[in-house]
Amino acid sequence: MYTTINEDGILNNYAAEPQMYYAEYPAIWEQRKYVLQSLFATLIVTTLVLIGFSVS
Q1: Does residue 49 lie within any of the structural domains?
Q2: Across the strands, what pairs with 2?
Q3: ∠11-17-21 over CA atoms, to 5°?
Q4: Which of 5, 6, 36, 48 has CA 20 to 30 A from 55's CA?
Q5: What is the pLDDT of residue 1?
Q6: Which run of H or of E encompasses 43?
Q7: Residue 39 lies in a domain
Q8: Which domain does 40 fall in, by range?
């Protein structure tokens, strides 16, 4: 942890910053997984909205 002290004696603590890295483009199997997840999420949201309309 990185700490500084100003002229009034007040401490400032700074968190350690993690190493930065560039993200890699997802592989084709990861892209397919994201598509399936989005379809499933869309199905759940649509179902909930339709249930909400039907009970109101």
Answers
A1: yes
A2: 14
A3: 165
A4: 36
A5: 65
A6: helix 28-55
A7: yes
A8: 26-56
